[in-house]
Amino acid sequence: MSTPVSTAPDTLGQALLAYQQGHLSATLAVHSSVADEEVLPAAYFFRSLWEMPEMERTALDECRGRILDLGAGAGCHALELQQRGFTVKAVDISMGAVEVMQQRGVREVACHDIFDPALARGEKFDTLLMLMNGIGLTGTLEGLECFLMHAKTLLNPGGQILATSSDISYLYEDEDGALVFDLNGPYYGQVTYSMQYAHQTGAEFPWIFTDPSLLQDYAQAAGYEVEFLEEDDQQQYLVRLTLV
């Protein structure tokens, strides 16, 4: 496994483990470069099928074959897919999350970064699942481009990526509704996050929210067919990228 070892606290994993151990009020504080501090209850990662947004339920319905759940968190999607009879490998970079998934009964769990070459050794998948704004795991536009190429080594012929993201351009609207961007700066959807739990703060990490047209351009350039399956009034969307 080539996942880099971080000395920063695994704040997400700590919160998930605390919830798993019965501390149901466990909560993360999420800091970002584009918004005020937000509160993220650990309970959100443990939701049942009918507690999931409709978009996530649609994505689960569209899964097929052998599935790789990337950024799987506490394993709520992997567990639902297992119940439906699918073979699922669930991975997360958080060791705490991996431990929680093992305790919850996810059968195949591993600690990996999504770019880890070890993901592609000896097995292929029919579906890569990237939910909860999962495109964000790629971090930057360069990371998105790299991941789309990397994913080709993970997919069987005709395989698909099912992913969610959102367009956050609304954060840059002025009082008249016009968009105000720094055209000389990075892409407006590139955000820096950190998470705090129990007075410990984890390392900062990049996250990307891609508008649909940009994602379509990158995916088509990488050799995928693009199909937008669902969108909501919060400018979130579910996309299927099919390897051609």
UniProtKB/TrEMBL annotation:
**What GO terms in the biological process aspect are recorded for it?**
methylation
Gene Ontology molecular-function annotations: methyltransferase activity
- The chain positions of domain Methyltransferase read 67-159
Q: Which InterPro entries match?
A: Methyltransf_25, SAM-dependent_MTases_sf
The family database entries (Pfam families) matched by this protein are listed as: Methyltransf_25 (PF13649)
Task: Look up keyword Ubl conjugation and say if it applies.
Answer: no
**Which keywords, in A-to-Z order, does the entry hold?**
Methyltransferase, Transferase
What protein name does the entry list?
A: Class I SAM-dependent methyltransferase
- Upper lineage: Bacteria, Pseudomonadati, Bacteroidota, Cytophagia, Cytophagales
